[in-house]
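Render Response regulator in 3D.
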Amino acid sequence: MEKNHSVLIVEDTEHIRKLLSQALIEEGWQVYECDSVSRALIETASRQPSMVLLDLGLSDGDGKQFIQEVRQWSHLPIIVLTARHDEAEKVAALDMGADDYITKPFGIPELLARMRAQIRRIDIKSTASNTFIFGDVTIDFSTHRILKGDQEIHLTPTEYKLLSELIKNVGRVCTQRQLLLAVWGPNYVEQPHYLRIYMGHLRQKLETEPTNPQHLLTETAIGYRLIR
């Protein structure tokens, strides 16, 4: 890794915690560990890790409690590691402020890819720039001009606002509720068909293969994600 990033693993199953720790140390991460919500809050405040990997089912409570507490004072990336397959649980964690989730069992390569995506998101947000590029699409925020290759693309104000929200959260899973609230407002949070329509418009205009998108991705039953 080019930078010395650190990660806090919050997992109460010891063999999983040790397996993750060993794998991440081998990849150059500085690793901290704990097994409870209460300890995780202390470790996050004192260690100030670059990222947290968070199990939801912990010995002294639900991991969502940790997310809720931390989001009052920090925006560090939180990736949820969960054995829960209930989509409502994942959505609840994301709505509270988690940045991504992985359902157990998962492979280390997938986890590392998700972690790299979050680090890139941090690096992008910390770099002052008027432009954003994904695939062959370039967005100039100073002029609101969008190019796909050499062709200028016109977006409606709503399409542009939705794209801007996805760019602001690049690499992060955005729930339907989060996007509806940010783009259309509180009166539309129960209207997911708006998102489906406008995401379809963005894919038609910006993806090379709209029916097989590579950047504007659907997280089934949860929301959407923009990846570079």
